[in-house]
Amino acid sequence: MPALRTILFALIWWLLAEGDAASWGVGLPSVLLAVAFSYTLAPPTPRSPLGLLQFLPFFALRSLRGAIDVAWRALHPALPIAPLLVDFRLRLSQEKARVFMTNCISLLPGTLSASLEGDRLQVHVLDGRGDFRRDLEALELRVAALFLDRLENADDGNR
Prior knowledge:
CATH topology of the largest domain: Alpha-Beta Plaits
CATH architecture of the largest domain: 2-Layer Sandwich
Helix content: 55-70%
Number of strands: 3
Strand order of the largest sheet: 1-3-2
Order of helices and strands: HHHEHEEH
Radius of gyration: 20 Å
CATH class of the largest domain: Alpha Beta
Largest sheet: 3 strands, antiparallel
Number of domains: 2
């Protein structure tokens, strides 16, 4: 993981310096300092390569399906929408996984994360008549696999 961050920051420096080799006198200490500082701000979180391989196609296909659905609704003469604000209890135990899921929901067309407080996520859905809870649960499963997170039991009816 440190190698990946070092390569990323070195690449950023190289781009900013427009490939000038003379800049590395200042660039190398800057890159190393940036790597050390990044670990203070964002410690590494274990992630599953298999979870990533499962998440990427899932996210891409859901995004495409959602984009087509939103376009169809926007062009439909009756504008078939039924907006709804939903309270969804997250079963993810890691805060980083919860934040990641919240951001992913906002990137999928037809849904928008409104607020995240603890394990409660408010989601605005474009059409509350659909099976949006199943979609949210499917996303949560993929995020859990990516972050090697365990899902807590849903012990209340507000799932």
